[in-house]
Amino acid sequence: MPPNIEPTQLKPRERAMQNFKLITEGPIIFFKENIINPLQAHIDRPKYYHRRFQRVPTFDQCYENDYICQFEANEQYHRDRVIDTKIIRILRRRAKECLFYEGPNADHRCKHIQETYEDAATNWFIKYGDLTVHSNVRDAYMKQKHRLIFERRKQEYEAKHGSNTE
Amino acid sequence: MAGMSLLRPVLQRTFRAGFKLNGQNGIFSLPKLQTISVRSMAGKAKIVRHHTQFEWQSFKDDVWFWTMFWLVPVGLIMGYANFVVGQAELSDIPEGYEPKHYEYYKGPIERWFSKYIYDSYEYDYHKKMIEHIDEMEKLALRDREEKVKSLMLKKQDCKSWYYYPGDLQETVRARQGHDEQYAGINTIRMRK
Fold it and tell me: What stretches pass through the bilayer (chain B) (predicted)?
């Protein structure tokens, strides 16, 4: 992110770009600060909270005929999936902003954030990739199972015959 | 009586002024579309002939009416909700307090709907859970039924659940009793 610079240090073009906000949003800000806030200042403003979800047993800890446990594990899986997707978006946005800001210096200035983003995206794809929108926690669990079996068999094969890259 | 005698000539004069009959125009007659000789009425005024504006004016009235019909109530509700009541403030959940289900939303209209119209998140969650459980139980039952049917077909050792095991002699006795009872009555004509 570009650092905060005092307005006096900015050039006229940049100052004009910041003053453009006053033209577009000036009347609204004036209306809110001078008319609405005094109107609402005398009452107790209502409060809202963010929902807190408790951790429930995951799908691999549920019995096969325990449908309640499976349902709750599925809901938890979808919530975690949304959170992981948002984390990836934040990292991607930071990498893009770094590239845009640094310009020619991006090669050595943006390495850390780009590596972090690539690793995170790879892990996301390992866990959730190629699963459709209507997938559930059982599909993801089976995907993990198939991946582990594949890796085990590949190791056994490579121990016997040698790897392809040699 | 005196009024009646005065009324007749007054009526006659108004009638002649309103509806002149000898090809002249009265006050209540329709204007005839014909060329008129332009008179210099105080120099510059003109009698302008124009087409009717009734359709256009009534259309505009309808548009204004039906938009305001919805805009005014909705605008008043929105104005009250945003300018007087206002959006909610985000705050931490105090210790030992369980927020009500509508206190998880920011906008005043959203809170009102959640409070009075929609089911809470917890209730909705339980509804979905019950639907899921019902469908999974039905799945299990269907699987079991298909397995039973295929085994019965394969092994052919089960008489299925419509078979009731019975005594043959009892059937014979019942048939004989029935035949004895209806022996004399000719109920059926059989072809020879």
Answer: 63-85
Residue A116 lies in a domain: yes
Dist CA A10 CA A19 (whole Å): 12
B91-140 pLDDT, tens digit each: 999 999 999 999 999 999 999 999 999 999 999 999 999 999 999 999 99
pTM of the model: 0.66
Interface mutation target, options B129, B137, B139, chain A, most CBs of A under 10 Å: B129
* Long-range CB contact pairs, A114-121, < 8 A, 24+: A116/A91, A117/A88, A117/A91, A117/A92, A120/A87, A120/A88, A120/A91, A121/A88, A121/A91, A121/A92
CB contact under 8 A, B104 and A48: yes
B89–A47 CB contact, under 8 Å: yes
In the numeric block, the tokens 């001078």 are attached to A34
> Which residue range(s) make up the domain with A93?
67-161
A35 and A72 in a common domain = no
Q: What ipTM score was computed for the predicted complex, to two decimals?
A: 0.75
Check if B104 contacts A (Cβ < 8 Å).
Answer: yes
A53 within domain boundaries: no
